[in-house]
Amino acid sequence: MPANAALDSMIERIRRAANRGERLRIRGGGSKDFYGEPVSDGEELSTLALSGIVSYEPSELVVTVRAGTPLAELERVLAECGQSLPFEPPHFSRGAAGGATVGGMVAAGLSGPARASAGPLRDYVLGVTMINGRGELVTFGGQVMKNVAGYDVSRLMVGALGTLGLIVEVSLKVLPAAPAEATLKFEMPQADALQRLNEWGGRPLPLNASCWVEDEGRGVLYLRLRGAIAAVEAACGALGGERLRNEDTAADWIACRDQQLQWFTGRGERDLWRVSVPQTAPMLELADSPIVEWHGAQRWVRAEAGQDARIREAASRAGGHATLFSPKDRNATHRFAPLSPTQGRIHRELKREFDPASIFNPGRLYPDL
């Protein structure tokens, strides 16, 4: 635990804010400032002073790291030991002064291309140390899966966008890097790609990530395989397609993860929507051709402003929901799917329990929370 002057100062500042009814905006490197509801109220509380890897046991596949640690630094240390964060968290530099941090990664709760096969970030959080809205330093979970009993409170911090407290440290499960990787390219329309992905998903194949995109009027599916050498080679032979060189595709998968592909950067004045649906969902009735990831479960949509109802209705009909991920109007609100009355009550009760004075990131998750 980082028992240092920076931590003591943060605890004191949070207690003072709670007593005075002041608001605080928790911020790491700022790489995800665009994500979530706009927050203008409150003084900034930076986590960057809480930096460094506390403990790392490669043989145990566990790392404990402070919230302000650059995500790139953690990934570099893991790579040196032949390990990685399998869920491929996006960095989203987007011109931010600081790079992505571990605390921001957990608070945003976002995963990259491999999420459909490797599992989401939430599955890899073993424990969290945080400061709640009373200025108390509390710890949930631990460093092994068997420590998680009853309510897994540590995973509540994943995707909470700092509304429940300030993350100080997090313990994460890591995995060895796959010994083999291959990317296959197939030219096919979206409907065929969805059908093939569903078929492949029912077979014992080392599927890791997929991305379908329309390139110059042609539908192209990229399929990444990862696993044992024999399994990857056998899958390449069985699936066909054009096998691409790993040296050529590595940067493209990173660009896909960080939304730096031309499809994202060339969207002009349109909003960017994230549509989450079952993998078996058919093509959605949308005006523009999407990017399809996660074997069909995640679809990125570009749309003119004011298309909220149409996009959310299309997602709902397919059994999913839509998020206004990155609007052109930074002041746009109601970015996340509306909560049901029961969900709203649970959110408000959690907020009152962790942050009774409502000082952390007011309105960042929902305008009224």
Keyword list:
Uridine Diphospho-n-acetylenolpyruvylglucosamine Reductase, domain 3; globular; five-stranded antiparallel beta sheet; alpha+beta; about 375 residues
Question: What does the model show?
Answer:
The protein has 369 residues and is α+β, with helices and mostly antiparallel strands. The chain folds into 2 domains: 5-176 and 343-354, 2-Layer Sandwich (Uridine Diphospho-n-acetylenolpyruvylglucosamine Reductase, domain 3); 180-326. 27% of the residues lie in helices and 25% in strands. The strands form 4 sheets. Strands 13-10-12-11-15-16-14-17 form an 8-stranded antiparallel β-sheet, with helices on both faces. Strand 6 (125-131) and strand 7 (137-141) form a beta hairpin. The radius of gyration is 21 Å and the shape is globular. The two termini are 30 Å apart.
The CATH topology of the largest domain corresponds to Uridine Diphospho-n-acetylenolpyruvylglucosamine Reductase, domain 3
Q: Name the helicity range.
A: 25-40%
Number of alpha- plus pi-helical segments: 10
The H/E string reads HEEEEHEHHEEEEEHEEHEHHEEEHEH
Q: Strand fraction band?
A: 25-35%
Structural class: alpha+beta
Strand order of the largest sheet: 13-10-12-11-15-16-14-17
Largest sheet: 8 strands, antiparallel
Number of strands: 17
The termini sit apart by 30 Å
Rounded mean pLDDT score: 93
- C-alpha Rg, in Å? 21 Å
